[in-house]
UniProtKB/TrEMBL annotation:
Protein name: Lysophospholipase L1
Span of the signal peptide: 1-18
Matches recorded under Pfam families: Lipase_GDSL_2 (PF13472)
Classification via SUPFAM superfamilies: SGNH hydrolase
Domain SGNH hydrolase-type esterase: 26-221
The family this protein is said to belong to: Belongs to the 'GDSL' lipolytic enzyme family.
Organism from which the protein derives: Chryseobacterium vrystaatense
Record keywords, A-Z: Hydrolase, Signal
Length: 245
């Protein structure tokens, strides 16, 4: 009988521990998302590269998905999936902007100063309503060097609005726009192609016709950005640093 009670005690203790385990949720677009066939696919999202940088005491759920904006992520029910699980002590990384710019797509476009801002504020407030900690991030830059070797901005007002919301609502903030801008510049106009998806025809089996993509990330680019993000997250002192290796 005592042995049976001990088994039940161990089982329920383990169950309780699992239920209380903190979770890091990622919501955002393709630059953050997990990519299929990671052993063969040259493309990786930077969020995909986080698990090796964090301890096993933290569960990571990457809900970021290709092509999603702050609007479509919610209308498709993806945020509902997070909210159903979100609990006190969890963390949510919020990174939108790339697809909010798509002015010819009513399902995704948001005006930066009105709907985009309102969407970010809603994600923040709803996260906090669950006792979880929201963390806002600006979008990563695109590799967009002009003829003079200057990295030109493509995101316009969207990163500014993220900064405004972070400041006004006192939200922990990671300026991935700045960090990735510095990263691209450090590699230079030509060498920075290594951070993205640039393959000639026949060079990569996954892209038999070749690939020329300055937005999405190679494994090197994703790993580099994940390390930059984690370094900033560690300095925020939100409690997430306890799970960073």
């Amino acid at each position: 009988m005592k042995r049976l009670l001990l088994i039940f005690y161990i089982f329920f203790s383990a169950l309780l521990s699992a239920q209380q385990k903190a979770t890091l949720f990622l919501i955002g677009d393709s630059t953050m998302a997990n990519k299929e066939n990671p052993d063969k696919n040259p493309e990786h999202g930077w969020g995909q590269m986080l698990p090796p940088l964090m301890t096993s005491a933290l569960e990571i759920q990457n809900h970021a998905a290709n092509g999603r904006s702050s609007k479509s992520f919610r209308t498709e029910g993806r945020w509902d999936q997070v909210m159903k699980q979100l609990k006190k002590g969890d963390f949510v990384l919020i990174q939108f902007g790339h697809n909010d710019q798509k002015i010819n797509d009513s399902a995704r476009f948001t005006n930066p100063y009105t709907q985009y801002r309102a969407n970010l504020e809603r994600y923040v407030n709803e996260t906090r309503s669950k006792g979880a900690i929201p963390i806002l991030l600006t979008s990563i830059v695109r590799r967009n060097f002009n003829e003079n070797g200057v990295l030109a901005d493509t995101h316009k007002e969207y990163p500014l609005v993220v900064r405004m919301v972070a400041n006004d609502l006192k939200v922990p903030f990671v300026d991935l726009q700045l960090l990735t801008e510095q990263l691209e510049i450090s590699y230079g106009p030509e060498n920075s192609a290594k951070l993205h998806l640039h393959y000639k025809k026949g060079e990569a089996a996954y892209y038999p016709e070749g690939k020329n993509d300055d937005t999405h990330l190679s494994k090197l680019g994703a790993e580099s950005i994940a390390k930059l993000a984690v370094h900033s997250l560690k300095n925020l002192k939100t409690g997430l640093e306890e799970y960073i290796k």
